[in-house]
Amino acid sequence: MPSIKSLKQLINNFEDEPKSERSKILNSIEIPTNDFRKFASWKEDSYTRNCIARTQAYEFILICWDENASTPIHGHDNKDCWMYQIEGALNEKIFKETDSGFETISEETLTKNNVGFMHDNLGFHRLQNDLPQRAMSLHIYATPIDKCLIYSDKVHKFETVELSYDNDHS
Fold first, then answer.
1. What top-level class would CATH report for the domain 7-163?
2. Residues 72-119: tens digit of each pLDDT
3. Predicted TM-score (pTM) of this structure
4. Lower CB density within 10 Å: C or N end of the chain?
5. Closest alpha carbon to 69 in 20, 129, 153
6. Which of 20, 21, 53 is nearest to 2 (CA)?
7. CA distances for 111 relative to 9, 26, 82, 143, 163, angstroms
């Protein structure tokens, strides 16, 4: 597969290829980090969801992570989710729910140019920027994700949450 040099090329290739080829496309990315910066926004001690493109078939979201920002344990509403690490590193833990809480199934660190994949049939996961620097990752959903299950530490159960963007550039 030829190198992907722009966001437009990435979106066009992703849209045209079957699901089985999409990881190969993401592994071909050679888009300069600066090309993502125009979509970036930051929130202290948290992360932002910045929509780059959205159709009925897919959604491209740039997630900008402040130092030590993390998601709660969550699912993906049975959507396929590919993650491409643009800058920095994220720790991903995948869990399965047990009678007594959660058991960690796997843990890995996504570093620059790494590609990950998540779907509810793999479990629930949490992403965290453990480093004392900001990070950026591109999350691609097939189809768009409008709601998901998020584990609430306050009430000790999953709740369905409607998702929104911090910025919509689509």
1. mainly beta
2. 999 999 999 999 999 999 999 999 999 888 999 999 999 999 999 999
3. 0.94
4. N
5. 129
6. 21
7. 23, 14, 14, 25, 26
